Amino acid sequence: MSKEPSKPSESLVQQLLAERRELRVAVERMRIEVEDAKRSSGGADPRVKELQDEVERLRYQLASARAEATQLKEERDALRGGIRRALEQMAGEAE
């Protein structure tokens, strides 16, 4: 019974974790592009600033996804605890 209410939040957590992995990959790709741009050009590449901004935006997005996943896990745990206490109380009343 307690598994049904947790499925949506677990699914959401899994989605957020997948998004986090995708963002990490995107950040690493941007970092590699920035390094390549620095090596391949003698002067400042106009794309470097753009790529650095994109890396910063992706880092912020990753941090937000992490915070949201943590919050969802805490909410899930609180809900499970409430369900567990309710079931224990119902079992105690039935006796």
Characterise this structure.
It is a single chain. This protein is mostly helical and 95 residues long. It has one domain (3-94): Helix Hairpins. Helix content is 92%, strand content 0%.
What's the short story on this structure?
The chain is 92% helix and 0% strand. It has 95 residues and is an all-alpha fold.
Helix percent band: over 70%
Give the terminus-to-terminus CA distance.
20 Å
| CATH domain topology | Helix Hairpins
- The overall number of domains is 1
User: What average pLDDT do the residues reach?
Assistant: 85
The topology string of helices and strands comes to HH
CA gyration radius, whole angstroms: 22 Å
CATH architecture level-2 label: Orthogonal Bundle
Structural class by sheet pairing and helices: mainly alpha
How is the main sheet built?
A: none
Give the class-level CATH name. Answer: Mainly Alpha
Shape: rod-shaped
- Report low-confidence residues grouped into runs of 5 or more: none
Number of helical runs? 2
Number of strands: 0
Q: In percent terms, what proportion of residues is strand?
A: under 5%
